[in-house]
TrEMBL record:
<feature type="binding site">
    <location>
        <position position="173"/>
    </location>
    <ligand>
        <name>3-phosphoshikimate</name>
    </ligand>
</feature>
<dbReference type="Pfam" id="PF00275">
    <property type="entry name" value="EPSP_synthase"/>
</dbReference>
<feature type="binding site">
    <location>
        <position position="317"/>
    </location>
    <ligand>
        <name>3-phosphoshikimate</name>
    </ligand>
</feature>
<keyword id="KW-0028">Amino-acid biosynthesis</keyword>
<keyword id="KW-0057">Aromatic amino acid biosynthesis</keyword>
<dbReference type="GO" id="GO:0009423">
    <property type="term" value="P:chorismate biosynthetic process"/>
</dbReference>
<feature type="domain" description="Enolpyruvate transferase">
    <location>
        <begin position="64"/>
        <end position="400"/>
    </location>
</feature>
<feature type="binding site">
    <location>
        <position position="391"/>
    </location>
    <ligand>
        <name>phosphoenolpyruvate</name>
    </ligand>
</feature>
<comment type="pathway">
    <text>Metabolic intermediate biosynthesis; chorismate biosynthesis; chorismate from D-erythrose 4-phosphate and phosphoenolpyruvate: step 6/7.</text>
</comment>
<feature type="binding site">
    <location>
        <position position="71"/>
    </location>
    <ligand>
        <name>phosphoenolpyruvate</name>
    </ligand>
</feature>
<keyword id="KW-0808">Transferase</keyword>
<dbReference type="InterPro" id="IPR013792">
    <property type="entry name" value="RNA3'P_cycl/enolpyr_Trfase_a/b"/>
</dbReference>
<protein>
    <recommendedName>
        <fullName>3-phosphoshikimate 1-carboxyvinyltransferase</fullName>
        <ecNumber>2.5.1.19</ecNumber>
    </recommendedName>
</protein>
<dbReference type="InterPro" id="IPR036968">
    <property type="entry name" value="Enolpyruvate_Tfrase_sf"/>
</dbReference>
<feature type="binding site">
    <location>
        <position position="145"/>
    </location>
    <ligand>
        <name>3-phosphoshikimate</name>
    </ligand>
</feature>
<feature type="binding site">
    <location>
        <position position="28"/>
    </location>
    <ligand>
        <name>3-phosphoshikimate</name>
    </ligand>
</feature>
<dbReference type="GO" id="GO:0005737">
    <property type="term" value="C:cytoplasm"/>
</dbReference>
Length: 411
C-alpha cells in the first residue's frame, strides 16, 4: 500500500488555494439535470470520484453500476432508477455493502418500486425493476442518513400525486435536506416544509443553468492548517460562496474559537491566525457530521480538550469514524474516549509516543485530510493509502505542496 510522508514547512506560505467544487451540490445538480432533461451542463462540476461515479452512471448505456464508495451516488441513483423502466443493478465497494439502505428501499417499495437485495438483506447491491411510482405520505426516521430523504425529495415531483415525507424523531444532517430543497427550487420546484413534514406536489422541472459552489467541507482542512501553523501568513481560499447553501459553511465561524480569523475579500476567503484558542471546545455536529474529524484532530494538536456530540451517524460513513479517530489519535499520543453512541471526548490525557506516526485511513478521505495537518505539530507524519482523498478533493496533496508542505510518496 502506498504511503505518503508529509513534512511540515517552517512557515505556511502566503498561499492562494482554489478549492474543489462541492460533491454534494454536484451530485444533486446531476440528478436534477437528468430529471429535467436539462440541455445546460452543470458549471464547475466536481472532479471527485463520487461525482464521476454518478456522471458515468447517468450517461452510460449499461444496466449495472458500480458506485464505489460514494454514498450520495448510491442513494440518489437508487431512487432515480426506481422510476425508469428497466432492470438495474447498483453495487459498490466492500464498505458500501456494509452501509444500510433499507430505510430508502422500504420507502420506495411503499410507493410501488420493485427492489431486491442481491446479497445481504438491507444493504447494497440492489436489483431494481423500474416502474412508475404512486405517491403517498411516507414516514421515515430523520436520524439515520439524510441522503435517503434527499433521494426521495428529488424524485418526488415526478411521482404520481407527489410525495409527503413525515420525518420521525430528531433530524440529522438537516442542512443537507435544505440544500436539496433549495437546489430543487432553482429548477422551479415548489414545496412546503412545516414542522417535520415536507410536501412536494407532482410538477414539472424547469431546465435552468446551474453552477456548483466550492466545497466548504474541504475548506475545513485549511482552517485547520492555519490554526496549527506557527506563523500568521494568510491563506486565501478561492471558489467558496459567502452566502453558501452548505451547512458546513459554519466551519469558518467555529474556527474563531480555535484562533483563526476569516474575512471575505475579492480573492476569496482569507484566513489568518490570531488570538488564542478556547480552553475547551464543545459542539454538537448533528448538522455538520463531516466536520467532526477536522475538529478532533485540530483540538488535540492545539492541546484543547473537547467534547464532540451528535456523532451517531459517524459509524455508518466511509468507516466507523469514531473508532478510526480513537485508534489513529492514539498513535500521536492522544487518548480519546466515547460513550459508544454519539460522542467523542478528550480531557487532555496523553501518553509518550516515539517517532513519527503512520496513520491508517480506512478508505476514508477525511481521515487522510484531517490527520495530514498534524505534521505541523509533529514535524512529520505518514499517511497510508493517500489516494483516498480523490473521493472529494483530488488535488489535496498538490495544494499542501503549494502551502509549503513536503509531500513524498514512500513505497
Ligand atoms: O447529502 C449529502 O450530500 C451528504 C449528507 C451527509 O450524510 P448523512 O445524511 O448520511 O449524514 C454527509 O455526511 C455526506 O458527506 C454528504
Ligand atoms: C460521508 C461522506 O460521504 P458519503 O456518505 O456520500 O459517502 C463524506 O464525504 O464525508
Amino acid at each position: 500500500m502506498a504511503k505518503l510522508k508529509v513534512t511540515a514547512p517552517k512557515e505556511i506560505k502566503n498561499t492562494e488555494i482554489n478549492l474543489p467544487s462541492s460533491k454534494s451540490i454536484s451530485n444533486r445538480l446531476l440528478i436534477l439535470n437528468a430529471l429535467s432533461y436539462n440541455p445546460f451542463p452543470v458549471k464547475n462540476l466536481s472532479d471527485s470520484d463520487d461525482t464521476k461515479a454518478l456522471a458515468t452512471a447517468l450517461t452510460s448505456n449499461a444496466s449495472l453500476f458500480n458506485v464505489g464508495a460514494a454514498g450520495t451516488t448510491m442513494r440518489f441513483l437508487t431512487a432515480f432508477l426506481s422510476r425508469i423502466v428497466g432492470e438495474w443493478i447498483i453495487t459498490g465497494s466492500a464498505r458500501m455493502k456494509e452501509r444500510p439502505i433499507s430505510v430508502l428501499v422500504d420507502a420506495l417499495q411503499e410507493i410501488g418500486a420493485k427492489i431486491e437485495y442481491t446479497e445481504k438483506e438491507g444493504y447494497p447491491p440492489l436489483k431494481i425493476f423500474g416502474s412508475s411510482l404512486q405517491g403517498k405520505t411516507l414516514e421515515l426516521p430523520g436520524n439515520i442518513s439524510s441522503q435517503y430523504i434527499s433521494a426521495l425529495l428529488m424524485i418526488a415531483p415526478t411521482v404520481t400525486d407527489g410525495l409527503t415525507l413525515k420525518l420521525i424523531g430528531d433530524i440529522t444532517s438537516r442542512p443537507y435536506i435544505n440544500l436539496t430543497l433549495k437546489l430543487m427550487e432553482q429548477f422551479g420546484i415548489q414545496y412546503t416544509w412545516t414542522n417535520n413534514t415536507i410536501v412536494v406536489p407532482e410538477q414539472q422541472f424547469k431546465a435552468v443553468e446551474t453552477k456548483a459552489e466550492g466545497d466548504w467541507s474541504a475548506a475545513s482542512y485549511w482552517l485547520q492548517i492555519v490554526a496549527l501553523s506557527k506563523n500568521n501568513n494568510t491563506v486565501t481560499l478561492g471558489g467558496l460562496d459567502r452566502y453558501s447553501l452548505q451547512g458546513d459553511a459554519e466551519v469558518a465561524n467555529l474556527f474563531d474559537q480555535l484562533g483563526v480569523k476569516h474575512k471575505f475579500s475579492q480573492k476569496g476567503l482569507q484566513l489568518t491566525k490570531s488570538g488564542t484558542p478556547t480552553r475547551h471546545f464543545s459542539y454538537d455536529f448533528t448538522d455538520q457530521p463531516d466536520l467532526a474529524q477536522t475538529f478532533a484532530v485540530t483540538c488535540a494538536c492545539l492541546n484543547v480538550p473537547f467534547h464532540l456530540k451528535g456523532l451517531h451517524t459517524l459509524k455508518i460513513k466511509e468507516t466507523d469514524r469514531i473508532n478510526a479517530l480513537i485508534n489513529e489519535a492514539r498513535k500521536l499520543g492522544f487518548i480519546f474516549t466515547t460513550n459508544d453512541v454519539d460522542d467523542l471526548k478528550w480531557e487532555g490525557q496523553r501518553e509518550e509516543v516515539s517517532g513519527p506516526a503512520t496513520i491508517s485511513t480506512y478508505h476514508d478521505h477525511r481521515m487522510a485530510m484531517a490527520f495530514a495537518p498534524a505534521a505541523l505539530t509533529n514535524d512529520q507524519i505518514f499517511i497510508e493509502d493517500p489516494e483516498v482523498v480523490t473521493k472529494s478533493y483530488p488535488d489535496y496533496w498538490d495544494d499542501l505542496v503549494k502551502a509549503g508542505f513536503g509531500v513524498e510518496i514512500i513505497e
